[in-house]
Amino acid sequence: MGKKRLLAAVRRQDLPFLEELCGRPDAFCVDLDRPYGRLGCVIMASGMGRRFGGNKLLEEFGGKPLFLRALEATEGIFAARVAVTRHREVEELCCGRNVPAVLHDLPCRSDTVRLGLEAVAGPGLPGGIEGCLFCPADQPLLRRETVASLALCAAAGPEWIWRAAWKGREGAPALFPSWAFAELRTLPEGGGGRLLMERFRHRVRTVQAREEAELWDVDSREDLERLKLHWKTSRMG
């Protein structure tokens, strides 16, 4: 391993050799029985859409409501998943996909973070969760493979905060380990996970998205049209 890359599949056993191998700083270990560990996911769907001029999450994107793309990008990876929203229509979309939703009328991003974390890290999941991804609901080009890569990295490196990036530009989603939960529950009013990533800058690692457009979000109708055009062009190519 000192000179060449090695890919190996081994049976899980309590052997000194395997413990030493997995403890190497250049080793990336995946438990094939539980590749993503025990992670939670909070889909952030509480935006009021003031700049957009309406509920952007219900806008058509690729023949379906834009919000559903966030559900698809996070499907089948997490031990617990919840959407936090102010919109009853979004709650109904979640119900149709058997995804729990927290409906609220609280004003701040910090409220959304706290409510989501309480929902996925509560007593309903025996053993709790080891980390939690916070995924914006307005990045319709986010790929499931990027979300899965974040989860794999978090399972292998639970001491780090993991976030998506593109050529040095960091973005969302971000996955926080359990040591950050207490801080996330007590964010200042209006604050989000970015505050923690700035405070614990030395504990942040990144996962590269396949393309920059995965990090683009929808703030305006112009953003939506740009994302639709990119999606159509990439499919044609």
Automatic annotation (TrEMBL):
Residues 41-199 form the MobA-like NTP transferase domain. It comes from the Bacteria. InterPro entries: MobA-like_NTP_Trfase, Nucleotide-diphossugar_trans. Pfam families: NTP_transf_3. CDD domains: GT_2_like_f. One of its GO terms (molecular function) is nucleotidyltransferase activity. PANTHER family: MOLYBDENUM COFACTOR CYTIDYLYLTRANSFERASE. This is Nucleotidyltransferase family protein. The lineage of its organism: Bacteria, Bacillati, Bacillota, Clostridia, Lachnospirales.
